Amino acid sequence: MGVKTVDAIPLVRPSLGEQELAAVARVFSSGWPAGQGPSGKALEADLATRYGVTDAVAVSNCGAALHLALLALGVTAGDEVIVADYTFPAPAHAVRYVGATPVFADVRPDTGTVDPRAVADLIGPRTVGVIAVDTLGMPADYDELNALTDRYGLFLVEDAACAIGATYRGRPAGALAPVACLSFHGRKGITSGEGGALLTTDPALAADARLRSSFGIGSIFDQAQIVGLPIPEFTEIGYNYKLSDIAAAILQVQLTRVEELLDRRRLVAAHYGQLLADEELVTLPVVPDDRTHAWQSYLLTLHPDVDRAAIATELRAHGIGCGHGTWASHQQPVYDSSQHCPVSADLARRNIAIPMHAELTPGQVERVAETLRTALHSHTRAGAA
Ligand SMILES: Cc1ncc(COP(=O)(O)O)c(C=O)c1O
What we know:
This protein is of the alpha/beta class. Helices cover 38% and strands 14% of the residues. Its cofactor is pyridoxal 5'-phosphate.
């Protein structure tokens, strides 16, 4: 009583509403909520059109899409795959799923995306390909990366998990390499809670991924439409990586909202930029002129003398969600790597994510910036700016 509680400002919030609910209701009525049914097929067609690719395979998440991509590309034990280091480590995990070795490439200090020169330096006799990441929504340097992988006969996979709506030299993220993987996890620009897709211009690769996403047999929905009793045979040890038609229907609606939702995220980013431009204790995100950001997250790089944990504690005490940014993959104990990626390690130490989603109001953005400024000046070692 008498204590005024402040409204919480979450780090992440999906934009799901009545249109998505209506789409789910339609799937309920259709009688086919499982995967590879009418909604799944319609979503795949929508994705293929949007990205100008021959095939889109709807799957349960982006980790599954990466796994299927590497299986279809024939990656196997003894192979090395070069992966971007500064990221949620799904690419390195996928390399390990197929028994191969991830080799970690350091990133650009300004964008956090993989440095093509670091990739070039790591190519060796066992290298079979590269997984580049559109770091938190920022596309990597695909002209340089495609030239490099073409020159050495390697594959290039674009992990565009965070990058729906972003562009690189006028082309959409998700169509910047011969194979790309998307995520529709709840934190991404569009979402069905969990979900993913594999996009490719190679029909054989898509067919392989689709088959293995369904235990190694074709679509059960398709089989059920045939008059007679065809008994499908298992031709691969596949997985159950299918996206449900419930999720697919939600995504069909969300796909029509990409630009609307991204415009709202852009406004938030611009507002933060304006409010924090003169703050010497943080470096704001840099977006090179030849690309646009999907703003999956808004990351600030703190001055080395700022106590990041104390800032996070203070923001959360004021009801403001925040996070550490992302991971320096090579430092994760599971990989037992002896490599060094100093730029990635430095970003992982100094980045902080502040609220970024399409539901933020200008007043909330102002409250975040103001609370952050106060926290910065109370938790910085003397001598810093
Ligand atoms: C770059 C990147 N790749 C892959 C993933 C995994 O996505 P999903 O949760 O859809 O498997 C993530 C998750 O955040 C990610 O950031």
